[in-house]
Amino acid sequence: MDRHVPMHALPEEIQKMSPEEKVCKYCGVSYLILHEFKAMEEKVKAMEKEMKFYQGSIEREKRLQEKLQSLSQDFEQYKIDNESKTESRIPRLRLRLKIQHGPGKLVPNSQFTKPCIDL
Known about the structure:
By secondary structure, the protein is mainly alpha-helical. The protein has three helices and no strands.
């Protein structure tokens, strides 16, 4: 923590005060450093609050990483399933084309410049 260093010395009249005059009668803390204690208390409270936030963020990060990994695995499985479905359709489409148009021919669609089907 930053330590406050005063720029000017205490006035002579405060320096000459007796210790009883400079100390809180309830808690025993010098009035001259009481404000520093209060400032430090506020800093500690702010730091505790920040620590709680970061502590929670670590747990959130872990849960999000697990969810991301699960979704990534699901995506890969869907890709594999889709590829296998596509691969199983290609032979059937080729067979259908052979039956309809003869082997090795692709008949262009009159509406388009591309062939009817891309293999």
